[in-house]
């Protein structure tokens, strides 16, 4: 089953780049993961369809609200350092440490 990860920020532009880089890391590793990137206004519409919601630092203020509104979805906030690197591998490594894995990989 495909693991669905949604990355959200205030505008969606930088998030698209980070999400694309994450997707390349997962694809290269042969992991069954689908990464999407959206602006914060889409979180209510998409959140319950996701396995993981990643929150960019620009909207970290909404973390508790998102956790409350999506109790069945793992919610992870990214730090400015993690997000600012624009490095897909860095974020994938963080997710692995948080227990977000596919098929034991």
From TrEMBL:
UniProt keyword terms in alphabetical order: Kinase, Phosphoprotein, Phosphotransferase system, Sugar transport, Transferase, Transport
InterPro entries associated with the record: PTS_EIIB-like_sf (IPR036095), PTS_EIIB_2/3 (IPR003501), PTS_EIIB_3 (IPR013012), PTS_sugar-specific_EIIB (IPR051819)
Pfam families in UniProt: PTS_IIB
Presence of the UniProt keyword Transit peptide in the record: no
Modified residues (Phosphocysteine): 9
Annotated ranges, domain PTS EIIB type-3: 2-105
Protein's name according to its UniProt entry: Transcription antiterminator
The organism of origin for this protein: Lacticaseibacillus suilingensis
